[in-house]
Specification:
Layout lengths: L1 E7 L3 H12 L4 E4 L4 H6 L5 E2 L1 H9 L4 H6 L1 E3 L1 E6 L2 E6 H5 L3 E3 L2 H14 L4 E2 L2 E7 L7 E6 L2 E12 L17 E17 L6 E6 L2 E9 L2 E9 L9 H11 L12 E16 L2 E2 L2 E3 L5 E2 L7 H22 L3 H4 L1 H23 L7 H16 L1 H13 L6
Parallel strand pairs: 1-2, 1-11, 2-8, 5-13, 11-18
Antiparallel strand pairs: 3-7, 4-7, 5-6, 9-10, 10-11, 12-15, 12-16, 13-14, 14-15, 16-19, 17-18
This protein binds 8-demethyl-8-dimethylamino-flavin-adenine-dinucleotide and P-hydroxybenzoic acid.
The site of 8-demethyl-8-dimethylamino-flavin-adenine-dinucleotide has 37 residues, from helix 1, strand 9, strand 12 and helix 8.
Length: 391
Amino acid sequence: MRTQVGIVGAGPAGLFLSHLLARQGVDSIVLEAQSRAYVEGRVRAGVLEAGTIDTMNNIGLGARMRAEGMVDDSLNIRFRGKEIRLDLPGLTGRHVMIYGQQEVVKDLIAARLAEGLPLLFEATVEGIEDIQGPRPRLRFRKDGVEQVLECDFVAGCDGFHGVCRQAPPEGVIRSFVKTYDFAWLGVLARAAPIADMTYASHDRGFALCSRRSPKVSRLYLQVPGSDAPENWTDRQFWDELHARMFDTQAQEIQEGEIFQRDVARLRAYIADPMQYGRLFLAGDACHIVPPAGAKGLNMAVGDVRTLARGLVAFYREGSRAGLDRYSADCIDRVWKTIRYSVALTGLLHRFDEQTPFERGMQMAELEFLHGSPAAQRVIAEQYVRLSDVSD
Ligand code: RFL
Ligand code: PHB
């Protein structure tokens, strides 16, 4: 087997890259370890930044998103029973879109298969050979048989637990890590969502009300890092959510059947540089953001847009310049995006080690944000377009 770009992973990074390349006449083969059903069923992100919306449209796959996605014009933050309302179009001229990552992934997979382009499921990459030579090889296993994909370049889009980041020699890629000792318990519930995307900073911990459709709410609670979804009864979940959202009479947030739940530990992680030889890392394979700010998927799209530009220039003009500076072109945006997500996490969560003084500082910052359109604009600006890149 042979192709121009071997793409490891069919998450958002790998799938977007395959479409961006195909539109410009560059061939790729996508190898995905999991089944199609598993990849399409994985519940994760929900907020698409302006640049991600544009990318869906530009690759010609935005129709269902435009029909079913929900334009989101505001981001609200509650504290002490007050509410800060960030009017996104008013503050920035742009909005975000709520459209589940699952739906994005389904659209991208369906289009790839309909176009008759190669995307192999249950094909696990086990090793990368010769990444510094002219023809790197991906060793992968499908149906119990070991196979080899020879390519010009490898795109490591295999997420945080993938193999690509481990392929370069020890010490070539530096890691920068911040771990948190708490997690988000996320649920999907058949219940009409509240009007706006709303974060809450409560003395009992952080909470978030988001949505997936007019009938499905996506709800999160800060929980200890060691917590498990089954530790929470539905009653406990709803009581805690009402309390943290300052819905004291339990009249605002509608309850409904909880049909999916997961716990995700928070961390921030950056791998630098994002390339080695003919291997290029993108998305969660080289950085993880804590989920406040909703940046992970959007950052992955920013990476692969930059990578696609470099690859297309290579095949069209024979220029390696864009590829050589891929990591340098991405890394400032990555650090800025992670800084934003870490700052929002710090502002909104309760920390075990937090002193009353530090809690007072959080409240003072929220009070300032409440009264300052300039400060609101700073938050809103980063929420709608921090991950964007120019094509
Ligand atoms: P993915 O989605 O993890 O995809 C990687 C793929 O690679 C496959 N793979 C392999 N394939 C072949 N061979 C191997 N050896 C392989 N090893 C792994 C995996 O099976 C998988 O299919 O990474 P990608 O493409 O970089 O995409 C990143 C995003 O998924 C992630 O950043 C976001 O989901 C993060 N995130 C959010 N991002 C946003 O932009 N907005 C949000 O609102 C948002 N909310 C969230 C989130 C993540 C969350 N969790 C659960 C971590 C909310 C949550 C709760
Ligand atoms: C979501 O809808 O899943 C979501 C929204 C906002 C975030 C994270 C996740 O910050």
